[in-house]
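ARCHIVE CARD
Drawer: 12
Card no.: 0347
Subject: one protein chain, sequence and derived structure
Cross-reference: see card 0346
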Amino acid sequence: MKQECVEIIVYGAEQICASCVNLPTSKDTYEWLEAALSRKFPDQQFQVSYVDIFQEQEDEEKANFASRVVEEELFYPVVVIKGEIVGEGNPKLKEIVKEMERYGYEVNE
């Protein structure tokens, strides 16, 4: 049973992470993730948000996590669901789907 509309937050930046040179940009990852999850969980409510770690954020929680990404030198993009990091640098769809299933989402194969 689904609890609520889960927000998947992708933290990243326009410039590619130094350790992630041959990987897609954070924005590309955000767009890919939104499309892939929409196919996996059709007709199920969730939200995918993008937060630029170098831009000022109005939401205090997002601003704090964006600062954490920078300060702790996490590999971005960083994918977060309910405060838990579920992907970093090159996030794996399988891990993100697994986390969403924990919140009651059902994969449509």
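Annotation on reverse: The chain has one domain: 6-102. The radius of gyration is 14 Å.
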